[in-house]
UniProtKB/TrEMBL annotation, chain A:
Coiled-coil ranges per UniProt: none
Keyword field: Cell membrane, Membrane, Transmembrane, Transmembrane helix
Family indicated by similarity: Belongs to the sbp family.
Bilayer-crossing regions: 29-48, 55-74, 80-103
Protein's recorded name: Small basic protein
Intracellular or extracellular location(s): Cell membrane
Superkingdom: Bacteria
Membrane topology: Multi-pass membrane protein
GO cellular component entries: plasma membrane
Pfam family, one: DUF1290
TrEMBL record, chain B:
Annotated Pfam families: DUF881 (PF05949)
Domain of life: Bacteria
Keyword Transmembrane: yes
UniProt xrefs under InterPro entries: DUF881 (IPR010273)
UniProt entry keywords in alphabetical sequence: Membrane, Transmembrane, Transmembrane helix
Family: Belongs to the UPF0749 family.
Keyword check for Ribonucleoprotein: no
Organism name: Streptomyces gossypii
Database matches in PANTHER family: UPF0749 PROTEIN RV1825 (PTHR37313), UPF0749 PROTEIN YLXX (PTHR37313:SF2)
Protein name according to UniProt: DUF881 domain-containing protein
Gene3D superfamilies: Protein of unknown function DUF881
Residues spanning the membrane: 34-53
Signal peptide location: none
Chain spans, region Disordered: 92-114
Length: 110, 253
């Protein structure tokens, strides 16, 4: 419950406060958000599986974000930033879908 | 990227289903370490999500675009501005041409109007105003005849008269004088003495031309007519005649 509240508060804060994102971080923000979404779905699935561990969740969340940003950063440096970020989004999207399927099986038993 | 499957996970109720666990996690709210850490991370996620969504919808396409895209867009904009610059120059040239031609048309119209006024003075279709002389011929004995008036007109024309009016009759190129008993007809209009000539022209030229020995004035005075010639700063010739289109003569040009 508190976790859900945290998400809602975050969205509201982002809309109300309108923080300025430094330009250095700006290109990595969308990828980082997708990576974080992947971690959240993974965590949800683990919780439904009964194997949720907050330490693992924190580590996976942070590492997901950092690795995704790092891949995009590396791609930018190599001149294939656009393609690589597309690749990362595709991979994360597939993972989100598979996690969502597992969650669906738990919740709806179908 | 890590996976969240943890083999060392502590499952409190092994026989509970996923759905029950989900409900148990959501309600009743419990302040545990796990809940708080997840809340913090989800707060960060929500923040990033909101910022990203807002900047994408507000900043338009350019905000999230990468460098090579921006370079391409910039190139396209440069090309477009060059094209538009060319277009602008072309249109400005066109406008200049049009303005010039309308200026030319305007000056041509002005010249035509000027010419029309000048010719109107000669043809007697417009009123004229200017320095000149006034001649009054008082015919006491009825001896003044058409040919004397015609001589006067011719003398005045030779001296540079530009517009002439005799007793409210405009004298033009086609004007004719005929005798009619005691009086004279000018262009068919009956005119009787005293004959008043309003003449526009250079007074210094016309007055001596009339007064030369053996000239018009002496000839008239020999016939017992009294002639007065006065110089005027401002003579108005406002008798008009309508423009007549020639029946036979056509411009040969």
């Amino acid at each position: 419950m508190i976790a859900v509240l945290g998400l809602i508060v975050g969205v509201v804060a982002g809309l109300v406060v309108r923080p300025v994102v430094p330009t250095v971080v700006e290109p990595y923000l969308p990828i980082a958000v997708v990576a974080a979404l992947d971690a959240v779905f993974g965590g949800l699935r683990a919780m439904l599986d009964g194997i949720f561990d907050d330490k693992v969740f924190v580590v996976s969340f942070l590492s997901n974000v950092v690795v995704a940003a790092l891949i995009v950063f590396l791609g930018d440096k190599l001149g294939v930033g656009a393609q690589l970020s597309t690749g990362v989004v595709v991979v994360l999207g597939i993972r989100i879908f598979s996690n969502a399927a597992a969650i669906r099986r738990h919740v709806f038993r179908a | 990227m890590s996976d969240d499957t943890n083999p060392a996970g502590n499952s409190a109720e092994p026989e509970a289903t996923g759905r029950q666990r989900l409900i148990a996690a959501v309600w009743p709210p419990r302040v545990t370490r796990a809940q708080l850490t997840v809340a913090v991370l989800l707060f960060v996620l929500g923040l990033g999500l909101a910022i990203q969504v807002r900047s994408t919808s507000e900043g338009g396409l350019l905000r999230g675009a990468r460098q090579e895209d921006l370079v391409r867009i910039l190139d396209e904009l440069d090309d477009r501005s060059v094209r538009l610059e060319h277009e602008k120059q072309r249109l400005e040239g066109q406008r200049r041409e049009l303005e010039n031609s309308s200026d030319q048309a305007e000056s041509a119209r002005k010249q035509t109007r000027q010419k029309e006024r000048e010719l109107g003075v000669l043809a007697g279709t417009v009123a004229a105003k200017g320095p000149g002389i006034q001649i009054t011929i008082r015919d006491t004995t009825g001896a003044v005849e058409a040919d004397m008036l015609l001589d006067t007109i011719q003398e005045l024309r030779a001296a540079g008269a530009e517009a002439i009016e005799v007793n409210e009759v405009r004298v033009v190129a086609s004007t004719y004088f005929t005798d009619s008993g005691d009086s004279v007809r000018i262009d068919g209009h009956k005119v009787s003495g005293p004959y008043v000539f309003d003449v526009i022209g250079e007074p210094k030229d016309m007055e001596p031309a009339l007064n030369i020995p053996g000239g018009v004035v002496q000839t008239l005075e020999k016939e017992q007519a009294r002639v007065e010639v006065t110089r005027r700063k401002n003579i108005t010739v406002d008798a008009l005649r309508s423009a007549k289109r020639p029946d036979y003569a056509r411009s040969s040009k």
